[in-house]
């Protein structure tokens, strides 16, 4: 039995029941692929259902505001995905429908090689190999390939190999099978080699190189940043600021940072504010943030830059916040200060 046949037979007994596999609707499939980038299925499924319910068609999503989409996305992180999702939906509407080939699908905002192949395969039955992290791992181990998967040459090598192994029939089901195989059977750590249908032909298993493959050459350099935020409560309102382009959390809302304040305001809060928490560590892909939070309830409304707004405390739930803000507000709610953060 060849590689593809073995995987398809394994898949018959091990397929994960996923709602977006029950449809050929390109919108539902595309939505799942975007949500599941850097997100576990267990977490992403609830978001998929939420988006489908709130915006049943790509036309509904295109007509939504960016703020609405960011709010619905809150908690998933990597918010550029949500902004790209919105722009791509508008592109689809302008085109009067989804492109039907992987080549054309890559013209949509935020749609790369993998996502384009997935939509083309699962929605339109294009015979194109879908290569995600699971597929890289399965192929690297099965063939014993030590070419780094994060290099241009490595990506090309694995894409060509994956395409050569793609069966001419049931190609979409095969793509789903090899991804599930990597997620369930050939896992990153502690793969189930003893009961693997491919172990007799697996080079990495034979040469005891399972834990060495696949190979990556690049390491992400993370820089550290220190941030100081203030929860400024005046009467029943707090101050918020919407982040602009060119940094993390574009379009999301945050509390004022100390660097936003005038020298006079800085003197006032340093004299009267209460420390809530210090050096809260929050890890992003390229940055590690160490954050302080202070609670300040001034007697008079302080002067803030023009792009700040004052929001009733109970309305904060209507604003899309980065995960770090949720963490800080949770710590504030659990403190002895106990203002009603309404989170």
UniProtKB/TrEMBL annotation:
Cofactor dependence is on: [4Fe-4S] cluster
Q: Which reaction does it catalyse?
A: Hydrolyzes free adenine bases from 7,8-dihydro-8-oxoguanine:adenine mismatched double-stranded DNA, leaving an apurinic site
Identify the residues that the record assigns to the HhH-GPD domain, covering every copy: 35-184
- Gene Ontology biological process terms, A to Z: base-excision repair; mismatch repair
Q: What is its EC number?
A: 3.2.2.31
Q: Name one Pfam family in it.
A: HhH-GPD
Q: Which residues form a coiled coil?
A: none
Per the entry, the cofactor note is: Binds 1 [4Fe-4S] cluster.
By its UniProt entry, which InterPro entries does this protein fall under?
Answer: A/G_AdeGlyc_MutY, DNA_glycosylase, HhH-GPD_domain, HhH_base_excis_C, HhH_motif, MIG/MutY, MutY_C, NUDIX_hydrolase-like_dom_sf
For molecular function, the Gene Ontology terms on record are: 4 iron, 4 sulfur cluster binding; 8-oxo-7,8-dihydroguanine DNA N-glycosylase activity; adenine/guanine mispair binding; metal ion binding; oxidized purine DNA binding; purine-specific mismatch base pair DNA N-glycosylase activity
Keywords, alphabetical: 4Fe-4S, DNA damage, DNA repair, Glycosidase, Hydrolase, Iron, Iron-sulfur, Metal-binding
At the top level of its lineage, which domain of life is listed?
Answer: Bacteria
Query: What is stated as this protein's family in its record?
Result: Belongs to the Nth/MutY family.
Report the function annotation for this chain.
Adenine glycosylase active on G-A mispairs. MutY also corrects error-prone DNA synthesis past GO lesions which are due to the oxidatively damaged form of guanine: 7,8-dihydro-8-oxoguanine (8-oxo-dGTP).
PANTHER family attached to this UniProt entry: ADENINE DNA GLYCOSYLASE
Query: Protein name, please?
Result: Adenine DNA glycosylase
